[in-house]
Amino acid sequence: MSDYxxxxxxxxxxxxxxxxxxxxxxxQLAERLGWPQSKVSKLENGKQTATADDLRRWADATxxxxxxxxxxxxxxALESHTRSWRRQLxxxxxxxxxTINAEFARTKAFRAWEGAMIVGVLQTADYARHIFTRxxxxxQSPRDIxxxxxxxxxxxxxxxxxxxxYQIVMWEAALRALVCPPAILAAQLDRLxxxxxxxxxxxxxxxxxxxxxxxxxxxxxxxDSRLVIVEDWHAELWIDDAAGVATYExxxxxxxxxxxxxxxxxxxISRVRRELHP
Length: 278
What we know:
Blueprint: H1 3-21, H2 26-33, H3 37-44, H4 52-61, H5 68-79, E1 82-84, H6 85-88, H7 94-105, E2 109-114, H8 125-139, H9 145-154, E3 165-171, H10 172-176, H11 182-195, E4 201-206, E5 220-223, E6 227-231, E7 235-239, H12 242-256, H13 262-276
Parallel strand pairs: 2-3, 3-4
Antiparallel strand pairs: 1-7, 2-5, 5-6, 6-7
């Protein structure tokens, strides 16, 4: 069982305590809140994650309004590691980008694996615009696309600052994914070619034909050796425990061992670009 699920079940136990202290059955509480009884049951048994509003209403309905702050604090601690896109994107994509930019600002060595798209710190503005548009459609989030693009572009300043270290590994599939029009992808591939040889960037490409020590899966980013951010469809995972970070470092090293660099990486990028525009 994950740490996240353990914390969610512990929150459920606390919710049940408050309900019983208020001398309410699950059905009575559900009727008072205007919820289906199944929601009360799922929250108490750690089968569903409450929102902050759910918790405040629960505290009020069980006649323990003073418990609202405690419950929302528990939720914040729970979500410090699992950050749902629904909550993160409630006010748009710009805020998420600003949060990531703050992590970049305090990071000396950045490592990344991306198997499905160009890693964010190397994206062109046009490419990033299409990525944000696709995700805004998926999550039905506010469409602050231009603000998000500008925030992502600010991140790239670090590529040109002395002392920075960016080690990025991508699967060949990321170079070929038509998540944007071919002309924009062509310009993005030119951008990738341009970073090869920079003293702050080590760009590796894992060819389709490479032998793999481990299956390529979700993209993730390692900030120094203190934090890993993993992207999934429903949420981001922020992993900061030493054992968890070490696992992703081993995964990254395994994928890196299958990559090619320098002229060999340049050759793959050039081939993909030629095939895009024969």
